[in-house]
Design brief:
Helix content: 25-40%
Shape: globular
Distance between the termini: 28 Å
Strand content: 15-25%
Number of strands: 12
Length: about 350
């Protein structure tokens, strides 16, 4: 796990004094399945500012990747956007036709996949795969090779990597190639979907440092999708916490990590090591996210929440601002200070 005490983690989050580069409002995405409709994303709202790195965090199955993929229309065949508005550089992405969306993908919004080994073509050398992307921008021949070399240098790879097949590279090198591909057409926004999950902790830090350095140098906006809150703590300016298809808390990293207002965020923070806390206090949140075919009434986290009261099981809490830039969807957010103290006790979660 990255060192959360390193100086580079003292982020100064952007306050969106200017209009956000990306604004997602009440996004709804459903999957048609043999059991009926699964509401994978159910009313999610969040912003990504200019040159800001935003962490989208939550357990597997909470809708993070579905929400991100819906931004560019790259979804499974049984998925569909059923509501909401996604504004990017002033245009509603959900209103674009296929041709208009193709002009946005990769040139304006690029994607770094979770497993580079699965996304890179195993039978083509790296050079050919990068050039296939560059052709979309009209680059061929020597200009294309020069750009490919520049991209490899940008992510810290030697020119010799151009001649390699994906299987000849280490996991970290393949992930850097995937980042280079995402940056090939100078996008404004990069979506990184669990980019370090399959890597060992040393390589994780190297790849995260590369992403953070590029984000600063190129003034990129980045959405970092992960289930690991330590990753977003290490490199993100702001955090959006999703649970069961909904945003339950969002705000500057310092606010969420230092003063979480939703019990789910408190539980996530407890799930990674803290040097100031005894090792035996590292405890998981009991249970699993609900079935999104038939989500529970009220707050969806209530069945797993040690602080739930009757109101939590019957009324859906709205996402409200509890301090400037910091929002939470919890009926007991006014008691967050007390709940955080109780949440630090292992016995609280062992119901």
């Amino acid at each position: 796990m990255p060192d959360l005490l390193a100086p580079e983690n003292a982020h100064t989050p952007l306050r969106h004094a200017v209009p956000a580069l990306l604004s997602v409002r009440d996004l709804r995405v459903s999957y048609r399945t043999g059991r009926g409709i699964a509401h994978a994303v159910d009313g999610a709202s969040f912003d990504v500012g200019q040159a800001e790195m935003v962490g989208l965090v939550g357990e597997s199955g909470c809708g993070k990747t579905t929400a991100a993929r819906s931004l560019t229309g790259v979804m499974a065949g049984n998925a569909s956007v059923t509501g909401g508005n996604v504004t990017f550089t002033g245009q509603n992405l959900l209103a674009l036709d296929k041709q208009a969306m193709r002009a946005v993908r990769w040139k304006q919004i690029a994607f770094v996949p979770q497993s580079a080994m699965n996304s890179l073509d195993p039978v083509y050398r790296v050079e050919r795969q990068i050039k296939e992307v560059l052709i979309r921008n009209g680059l061929r021949g020597r200009p294309a090779r020069a750009r490919a070399l520049a991209l490899l240098d940008m992510v810290g790879l030697e020119p010799s990597v151009l001649a390699a097949f994906p299987h000849q590279l280490s996991g970290g090198m393949r992930q850097r190639v995937a980042i280079a591909l995402a940056l090939a057409l100078d996008p404004l926004l990069v979506i990184a979907d669990e980019p370090v999950t399959a890597l060992d902790v040393i390589v994780q830090r190297e790849v995260l440092d590369t992403l953070r350095d590029l984000q600063k140098r190129l003034h990129l906006s980045v959405i970092m999708i992960t289930h690991d809150i330590s990753v977003v703590a290490y490199c993100c300016d702001s955090i959006v916490v999703m649970y069961a298809g909904q945003v339950v808390e969002s705000g500057p990293s310092s606010a969420l990590l230092g003063a979480a207002a939703h019990p789910y965020t408190m539980g996530l923070c407890n799930a990674f090591p803290d040097l100031e806390r005894a090792a035996d206090l590292l405890v998981p949140i009991q249970g699993s996210p609900p079935d999104l075919h038939e989500p529970p009434a009220g707050c969806r986290f209530a069945p797993r929440c040690p602080f739930a009261v009757t109101r939590c099981t019957v009324q859906v809490p709205p996402l409200v601002e509890i301090e400037p830039g910091h929002k939470a969807a919890c009926w007991r957010s006014a008691e967050a200070g007390i709940l955080r103290q109780r949440a630090m006790e292992a016995t609280t979660w062992m119901r």
